[in-house]
């Protein structure tokens, strides 16, 4: 059969787990509020009971209502594009995925989930030609939490619904599933391909086999929010808030020598491979004979301190680096909330995104103190490094790349759509947040622009490569602007 058209289900076939609760929970939390998510969690016993007595349709109707009623359709679509794909990819069944793309004809996927929640993922990552999901009733751009015609895409009635959508004479060449379907499916499919049902052979698709690299995603939750995991998150919140406040006060008040030890008693782990004694001290170097930014005379600055160039995982990267070195350093940022600037235990200076002005400012700061810069310009959660801005290689004499990685088991400390002022707070709320820093070999004077003929871009790429190899991350040419355009549809720049 040449290029057969294929139809399959999302839950239980493309995805390993049939439960749709985690995806409704994510929409409730990210497009709605914690209160809405808590309400959905409270009715989860009722949902389980309805499913256990074969009233799956009623369960889905309740989840649609409680998670979507009153939400902006645009907000739901944003969550579907920025948050849900990561959780779908982690739940893709490897056996099904190997078969599904091999069908060269049209690919159809049906699901009881609302179409606006699944369409971005299925079209972008699985190249589905037609997504058959539950339609929602809306009013003036807001969801009413009710199912629209032709009805809910679940149970045996879904075949009648598909018939209404695609036409009564619509035929498919192949049905892809885990078990033989009812006789009603014969009306639609000439053949059925039954995948192995042995749970021992059911494995998730590995990251290296993803149809498209997952580099950017948003959302606060790390783990898939099943009812039990969601319950654990809500029960943890009071203690998490206490720990976050305690960890903040420790970093703000206590001396470096004692702060690290006290922070460790709260469960926070900081591991560092420190630089050699030569680079551990704040060395002074003769300035460049010229400033590449072209706007200042380097001789007016005198000797400069060390510039630490870090990979960017959370907003507190510079604070952790300063604590590890046990001395104050300054940090330059492209964007930081006023609250974060006020609460930061180290001095932070905001750059203007004007290359000439920023180069001049950074050289002035390097005269006063060691400086930390994250040349990616934004955080990246996955094992990838974004493109490094070359500005740092044009204004500093002593450059020390620092490979920084951070992990949290419950919350992400970064966001695109949420309140950025709470980013650090969320990371510190994790039961055992982990930081690892590795100070790499200093980029020597012999490898710099003036003596080796390398451009500033080549130096920036060298620092990116060194950090990428130390972390086992892949280097990319993606930028901050591309991240925000993908996740939020804007350039990520707020007007003052």
From TrEMBL:
<dbReference type="GO" id="GO:0010143">
    <property type="term" value="P:cutin biosynthetic process"/>
</dbReference>
<dbReference type="Pfam" id="PF01553">
    <property type="entry name" value="Acyltransferase"/>
</dbReference>
<protein>
    <recommendedName>
        <fullName>Phospholipid/glycerol acyltransferase domain-containing protein</fullName>
    </recommendedName>
</protein>
<dbReference type="InterPro" id="IPR056462">
    <property type="entry name" value="HAD_RAM2/GPAT1-8"/>
</dbReference>
<dbReference type="Pfam" id="PF23270">
    <property type="entry name" value="HAD_RAM2_N"/>
</dbReference>
<feature type="domain" description="Phospholipid/glycerol acyltransferase">
    <location>
        <begin position="306"/>
        <end position="407"/>
    </location>
</feature>
<dbReference type="GO" id="GO:0016020">
    <property type="term" value="C:membrane"/>
</dbReference>
<keyword id="KW-1133">Transmembrane helix</keyword>
<dbReference type="InterPro" id="IPR002123">
    <property type="entry name" value="Plipid/glycerol_acylTrfase"/>
</dbReference>
<dbReference type="GO" id="GO:0016791">
    <property type="term" value="F:phosphatase activity"/>
</dbReference>
<keyword id="KW-0472">Membrane</keyword>
<comment type="similarity">
    <text>Belongs to the GPAT/DAPAT family.</text>
</comment>
<dbReference type="GO" id="GO:0090447">
    <property type="term" value="F:glycerol-3-phosphate 2-O-acyltransferase activity"/>
</dbReference>
<keyword id="KW-0812">Transmembrane</keyword>
<keyword id="KW-0808">Transferase</keyword>
